[in-house]
Design brief:
By secondary structure, the protein is of the alpha/beta class. It has 2 domains: 244 residues, Rossmann fold, CATH 3.40.50; 67 residues, YebC, transcriptional regulation domain (Alpha-Beta Plaits, 2-Layer Sandwich), CATH 3.30.70. 37% of the residues lie in helices and 26% in strands. It has 12 helices and 14 strands. The strands form 3 sheets. The chain has a 6-stranded mixed β-sheet, with helices on both faces. Strands 2-1-4-5 form a 4-stranded antiparallel β-sheet. A 4-stranded antiparallel β-sheet has the order 12-13-11-14, with helices on one face. Helix 3 crosses helix 4 and helix 9 packs across helix 10. It is globular, with a radius of gyration of 24 Å.
């Protein structure tokens, strides 16, 4: 029996494409009305996992459910619940923006009037009203991306899979998309978000799963994951730049030889515990160093990613499954 509090779940998913194992026993789950961020290096299996959940790819082993429905046995019912935006645009270049969205509505069996109304709602929401009746051949890359995102929401899905949704968007449009995701979650929608922008996962995700070589290697809240990356960092910025050297002496003495890094008029140093930070505050005060900034920071998600996978996530790289996994999938499909 499925858990009504779980919007989607996978257990032991295995998917192979020839000699390439894209998923190697993947376990994922997301609570209803939350954002699950999925991070991983190129080729980790993120897009393959979405394709299985979206009924586009059959797993070789294991199972996956969306709501109460198995993605293999109940594929049609699953498709009624979900919206999907992939890494490549799925809209038709020969149609206008409005015609594309109305077409998606009709494919979802919406009455014509409702399909047109829904298209207008989404054109407004994504800032495409002025270009609604222009052919996509006139759209910029960012406009096409926004239309593709809108198309995934035509059917008012309860679960939305967003596979690197802000790739190709400028920072302002990316912020708009973040607001859209927050709005969806506020309305009770569950979102699976893959991204190579770690700040995006940090800003949006309630929980994050890090996958590598087709399996989950860490799953926690963003704050919880940061704690696994190791030591915290103290940041000291003297109010008077002339005090930087004296502050560095205090920091070095209190932290007993930890590497002190000057960065843009501030000092950063790893600290083992809150007690060390307290001694640092006291030492600076005793030395008469007035500070403009004194903070204790958890490791960033970049630090987490590096410590877990041995690599860094670089925004703007080619899509994760554009290499061996996608090539293998294409050969199998053909």
């Amino acid at each position: 029996m499925s858990d009504p509090d779980i919007a989607f779940e996978t257990r032991g998913l295995v998917k192979r494409f020839g000699d390439t194992t894209a998923l190697a026993g993947l376990d994922l789950a997301a609570r209803t009305g939350t954002v699950l961020g999925v991070l991983g290096p190129n080729g980790a299996g993120k897009s393959t996992a979405i394709n299985v959940l979206a009924t586009l790819t059959r797993p070789d082993e294991g199972w996956a459910r969306v709501g109460a429905y198995d993605v293999v046995r109940d594929a049609r019912s699953v498709r009624r619940l979900i919206g999907l935006t992939g890494q490549a645009a799925t809209v038709d270049e020969d149609l206008t923006g409005r015609e594309n969205l109305v077409l998606f509505g009709k494919l979802l069996d919406l009455p014509t009037r409702r399909a047109r109304l829904r298209a207008d709602e989404l054109l407004d929401e994504f800032g495409l009203r002025d270009a609604a009746d222009k052919r996509l051949s006139t759209y910029s890359g960012g406009m096409r991306r926004r239309l593709d995102l809108a198309a995934g929401l035509v059917g008012d899905p309860s679960v939305v899979f967003l596979d690197e949704p802000t790739t190709g968007l400028d920072p302002r449009k990316r912020d708009d998309m973040w607001d859209t995701v927050r709005s969806l979650v506020g309305a009770g929608v569950t979102v699976l978000l893959t991204t190579q922008y770690l700040e995006e996962a940090d800003a949006l995700a309630d929980e994050i799963a890090v996958i590598d070589h087709g399996r989950v290697i860490a799953h926690d809240t963003p704050a919880g994951l940061k704690q696994t990356a190791g030591r915290q960092t103290a940041v000291v910025r003297p109010r008077d730049p002339a005090d930087l050297a004296r502050a560095a002496e205090v920091v070095a003495r209190v932290t007993q030889g930890s590497a002190v890094h000057p960065v843009g008029g501030a000092l950063t140093v790893p600290v083992d515990d809150d007690e060390t930070f307290t001694r640092l505050v006291q030492g600076l005060s005793a030395a008469g160093v007035s500070v403009a900034e004194l903070a204790l920071r958890l490791p960033s998600l970049d630090d987490v990613f590096l410590s877990l996978t041995g690599t860094t996530a670089v925004a703007g790289e080619s899509p994760p499954e554009s290499g061996a996994t996608a090539d293998a999938e294409e050969r199998v499909a053909s």
